[in-house]
Amino acid sequence: MKKKEIFMRGIIKENPVLVLVLGLCPALAVSTQAENALGMGLATTFVLLGSNIVISLLRKIIPGSTRIPCYIVLIASFTVLIKMVIEAYAYTLYQSLGIFLPLIAVNCIIFARAEMFANRNTAIDSILDALGSGIGFTVALLAIATIREIFGSGTFFGISLPWLIDNNAMIFTLAPGGFIVFACLLAAVNKFSKSQNTRKDMDCKGCPSAAACGKLTANALSGGEN
Question: For the chain, which residues make up each domain, given as ranges?
Answer without folding.
Answer: 3-200
